[in-house]
Amino acid sequence: MSGDRRAAGAPIRLTVLTGFLGAGKTSLLNRLLSETPVANLAVVVNEFGAVGLDQLLIETASSDGVIELSEGCVCCTVRGALVDTLVMLATRSRPAETPPLERVIVETTGLADPTPILASLMTHELLADAYALDGVVTVVDHLAGAANLAERPEARRQVAVADRIVLTKGDLVAEQEPLLDAIAALNPGVGLVDARDGEGLAQRLFGCGVVDPVTGKADPARWLGAPGHAGHAGHDHAGHDHGAHGAIRSFAIVQAEPVAWEAVVAFLDLMAATQGERILRMKAIVHVRESPARPIVLHGVRSYQHPPAQLAAWPAGMSPETRIVLIGDHLDEIYVRDLFAAFTGGLRSDAPDRAAVEANPLAVPGHSFG
Questions:
Q1: How far is the C-alpha of 166 from the C-alpha of 138, rounded, in Å?
Q2: What is the four-CA torsion angle of 7, 202, 74, 167, rounded to 10 degrees?
Q3: Which residues, at least 6 apart from 207, have a Cβ–Cβ distance to it below 8 Å?
Q4: What does the buried/exposed string (b/e) look like for 199-208 if buried means 16 or more CB atoms within 10 Å of the residue's CB?
Q5: Quick check: 225 and 314 in contact, CB under 8 A?
Q6: Other residues' Cβ atoms within 10 Å of the Cβ of residue 279
Q7: In DSSP terms, which residues pair with 299 in a beta bridge?
Q8: Helices in the chain by DSSP H: which ranges?
Q9: Exposed / middle / buried, residue 284 (Cβ in 10 Å: 0-12, 13-18, 19+)
Q10: Cα 367 → chain centroid
């Protein structure tokens, strides 16, 4: 592994760039690259070719990380090739005069589900050590975006798991409200960026994680998409029906009282075992009883959990509370809330007790899962 980078203790920031077919990912990528120093950045693309910016990706397509994702999913073979490429980028020696690799952008195909990539970052030991997920950026075009979200599950997943959404082709439509409503139905806390506004993209699309890589300050409320941090720029969705896309939706569990870490672990384990495939993404900040002044940050995809990270203190202006944001596909909100209450002693009077849940985790009154 690169001695300089590992000695500095700085993980490589990884951005997943996704979006449905024709949304404008390539144009966006070119803009990002024009704004970003190229000596310390590499790009893994999904076409038969590579954008080689630091001599890491321009030798041969088979060995240097050009990953083609096809048929709308990341199959095991392709995901393995992507893992191999990311390992190579993290461990490959760089010339002494070359700055250490600081950022990798992975561009998916228009039909890709980003969650397997995120899961690989959490489950592969070397990747989990070498990389930090900087964020998922999803490109959505005004011209076809609303129809894609209504008709294509891949497009819905890409929007649901996004940390930032870049809106393109706004000049080609007169009515933007339907698309904004569809996005809010799937991911109400996501930050929106208008590609036409003339402002720089890099400073708005990079640094989406819980800790700002430049300042080192944590901003979990922004990362979680908490109220007041959404990027809807004055667009009020409070009165809209957010059930239009039914199967994929997000919700938050909030509890002010500190909870036992053991109970949180048990809740997450049971959720992974019974609902893992329904969880597209989970973000959380936990007010733990054992260390109430130092919150724990959690991040999960499907049934996989990134190793917990503990902050030094609650960020200024953020009230100590547990906030778990879940984005699910056919994930039953009542079932999840009941499980959390059962393990943490919440106030849901209709929730089963913990012993009953542990004995039969699927036997929540009124709910059954196949």
A1: 6
A2: 160
A3: 134, 135, 213, 214
A4: eebeebbbbb
A5: no
A6: 21
A7: 283
A8: 3-8, 25-35, 76-91, 115-123, 125-130, 145-151, 153-160, 177-186, 202-205, 220-224, 261-275, 333-344, 354-359
A9: buried
A10: 28
DSSP state letters, 70-131: -TTS--HHHHHHHHHHHHHHHHS---TTSPPP-EEEEEPPTT--SHHHHHHHHH-HHHHHHE
The rounded distance, in Å, linking the Cα atoms of 336 and 254 is 12
Domains and CATH numbers, the chain: 3-224 (3.40.50.300), 248-359 (3.30.1220.10)
DSSP symbols for 39-57:
TTEEEE-SSSS---SSSSS
295: exposed, middle or buried (Cβ count in 10 Å: 0-12, 13-18, 19+): buried
Both tokens of 158, joined, read 């890409």
Residues of 311-347 as b/e, b for ≥16 C-beta within 10 angstroms?
Answer: beebbeebeebbbbbbbbbebbeebbbbbbbbbbebe
State the pTM of this model. Answer: 0.78
Q: Which two three-digit tokens encode residue 146?
A: 């609303």
Q: Residue 275: which pLDDT band, with cuts at 50, 70 and 90?
A: very high
Interval 305-349: pLDDT, tens:
988 999 999 988 889 999 999 999 999 999 999 999 999 986 554
Residue 54: both structure tokens together: 């630091």
The CA distance from 178 to 146, in Å, is 7
